[in-house]
Amino acid sequence: MHAAGRSLSDVVQIQAYLIDKTDAAGFNRVYREFFRAPYPVPATVVVDLLSTDIRLEIMATAVV
């Protein structure tokens, strides 16, 4: 993002995909550390993946 001349303040939406709903509280805590009001619109989805080492995937949308 920085290579494109953008920062986290340009993010308007975050989509987070968790494989375990118990990770949601930790995600929300870290989300509040990186973003400030007005917060990007969050969409958090818990997905059921049987075999993966990935616990979290994030997609961000920024306005230029």
From TrEMBL:
This is Enamine deaminase RidA (YjgF/YER057c/UK114 family). Pfam families: Ribonuc_L-PSP (PF01042). It comes from Pararhizobium capsulatum DSM 1112. InterPro entries: RutC-like_sf, YjgF/YER057c/UK114.
